[in-house]
Design a protein that fits this description.
Helices cover about 30% and strands about 25% of the residues. The protein has helices at about 25-45, 60-65, 70, 85-95, 135-145, 170-180, 195-210, 260-270, 270-275, and strands at about 15-20, 50, 70-75, 100-105, 115-120, 125-130, 150-155, 160, 185-190, 215-220, 220, 230, 235, 240-245, 250-255. Strands 1, 2, 3, 4, 5, 6 and 15 form a 7-stranded mixed sheet that branches. Strands 7-8-9-10-13-14 form a 6-stranded mixed sheet, covered by helices on one side. The protein is globular and about 55 Å long. The relative contact order is 0.17.
């Protein structure tokens, strides 16, 4: 893997991680809720806002399986999404000049369906920005086609890798973003109650592994067995918690990506620069 050289950006970037409960199947209502949460984050100074995995239709496999026409948004051949149910999100992004990443079920022109992170830019345009590459469990594998490539979002000189939930459990996924020069990693997610240890470990590990900021936005609430555990968080490039929400209730947490801190950490902890190529090749075998 070739490392892309990307020095720290010139200015700080305020980002928000959101946790909230979505209503299964109510894309229009959830888009309205998302717009209100984005407005709240913008009030707190956020320039980039990340919402949970599948927030627009809600992460509820029976509903996603039973009503694909009602739960999906359609992307055209250029990856653009023109669904009128998303107009509140378009408006708040345009009016507040924020960039939004939000989870959705996306139907593509070839008929495939992906669990994706939509990106709403500061002009209100919506694109199917990134399709989840690592699908979790039988429900997701029955519902979705895995994505084929990574994605990097550029905002104000910051390079932000995109992942969705289970992607963040794979060190290689975060490393691929870092190898493309990412300064941060944005992960809409849906962690279930009982997974708190893993939830809190994976994303701080991705931050430290790659000396990059990480934003973890999680669903909360819902009925068992799809009951989610919140804990939305923003981690610094050493894996320290900058802001974290509680395990219950809606919340918006905001922190600043600091270019000076990014430079300091990457100068002190040189895992990206010192990583040896080809470590998956031939290995010496020893006996004891």
């Amino acid at each position: 893997m070739t490392q892309t050289t990307a020095g720290p950006p010139a200015a700080a970037l305020p980002v928000a991680a959101v946790q909230a409960e979505a209503e299964p199947g109510n894309v229009a209502g959830n888009a309205g809720s998302a717009a209100r949460l984005v407005g709240r984050a913008a009030d707190d100074g956020a320039r980039v806002v990340v919402l949970p995995e599948l927030f627009l239709p809600a992460y509820h496999p029976p509903t996603l399986a039973g009503d694909p026409a009602g739960t999906d948004v359609a992307a055209d051949h250029d990856g653009q999404v023109a669904d009128s149910r998303l107009d509140p999100l378009r408006a708040v992004a345009r009016d507040r000049r924020v960039v939004v990443a939000v989870g959705a079920a996306v139907r593509h022109p070839d008929g495939s369906r992906t669990c994706s992170a939509l990106v709403v830019d500061g002009a209100g345009r919506v694109s199917a920005g990134y399709a989840k590459q690592h699908l979790w469990g039988p429900d997701e594998n029955a519902l979705f086609t895995p994505g084929r490539c990574g994605a990097t979002l550029l905002v104000d000189g910051w390079r932000l890798g995109l992942g969705v939930c289970y992607d963040g459990c794979f060190p290689e996924h975060g490393r691929a973003a870092a190898a493309d020069g990412a300064h941060g990693y944005l992960c809409p997610s849906g962690y279930l109650v009982g997974s708190e240890h893993r939830r809190d470990l994976y994303y701080r590990a991705r931050a430290l592994d790659n000396t990059m900021y990480v934003v973890f936005a999680n669903a909360v609430g819902g009925a068992a067995p799809w009951r989610f555990n919140g804990g939305a968080a923003i981690y610094d490039p050493e894996g320290r918690v900058l802001r974290r929400a509680a395990d219950s209730g809606a919340a918006v947490v905001v922190a600043r990506f600091d270019p000076a801190e990014l430079h300091r950490v990457r100068d002190a902890h040189r895992m990206l620069a010192d990583r040896l190529p080809g470590q998956g090749g031939v290995r010496t075998r020893l006996t004891g």
